[in-house]
Amino acid sequence: MTTATQKRKPADEGRAFFDRELADLPQDLRWREWMGRIEAVLFASATPISRDDLARVVGQEVSVEILIKDIQGELSGRPYELVQTAGGWMFRTKNQFAEAIKAAADLGDQSLAFTEMEMGVLCAIAYHQPIDRAGLKDIFGKEVSRDLLARLRFKDLIASGPRAPRPGAPHTFVTTPEFLATFDLQTLRDLPELELQSAT
């Protein structure tokens, strides 16, 4: 058994060896292969992929950020782009092609269209999370229906948070990583500043 074969022997028989370093390739081919791996991982995922997860497919000392910049440079004339959102990276179609996609896919009203009340409740949860139904009632001056909250939960924009410190310890609501991705936010700190109206 050669030294190279011994290096490539899997740690256990059930796992195949994955060569992250690609030391046997020239530098330019190695870089291309790493770019291809990152693109493949991102292409295969419908959700953002974290930097740490992307680092698992490239060499140990390789800068994922520089690889991503190179990929973004190659995509400049393409109808899609590589964007950072919700703590990770993902491919997105450029906004200018939205109408073409809707027409070709016959999406109809399947988009994330919101009623004014749904958008208001989603904003209230985003800015005041974790918040329970009583907290939402304080903001809106009326009960927020369970059906409305269920629709936001179905769209995977909100989830259950910790129990509220109120009698009965009701569930609270928080936003999800899908909320961040949908509204193209890295973190909740990227939410626009609230403009508070003063009472006159």
Characterise the protein shown here:
The protein is of the alpha+beta class. 42% of the residues lie in helices and 12% in strands. The protein contains nine helices and four strands. The protein has helices at 3-8, 27-43, 51-55, 64-74, 98-105, 116-128, 133-140, 146-154, 177-182, and strands spanning 80-85, 88-93, 158-163, 171-175. Strand 1 (80-85) and strand 2 form a beta hairpin. Helix 2 (27-43) packs across helix 4. The longest helix has 17 residues, at 27-43. The radius of gyration is 23 Å and the shape is elongated. The termini are far apart.
Based on the model shown, name its key terms.
two-stranded antiparallel sheet, 9 helices, disordered N terminus, 200 residues
How far from one another are the termini? 85 Å
Q: Please give the count of helices.
A: 9
| Secondary-structure class | alpha+beta
For the biggest β-sheet, the strand order reads: 1-2
Total count of strands: 4
Unreliable spans? 1-12
Helix-strand pattern: HHHHEEHHHHEEH
Give a short summary of the structure.
This protein is of the alpha+beta class and 200 residues long. It is built from nine helices and four strands.
Secondary-structure blueprint:
Blueprint: H1 3-8, H2 27-43, H3 51-55, H4 64-74, E1 80-85, E2 88-93, H5 98-105, H6 116-128, H7 133-140, H8 146-154, E3 158-163, E4 171-175, H9 177-182
Antiparallel strand pairs: 1-2, 3-4
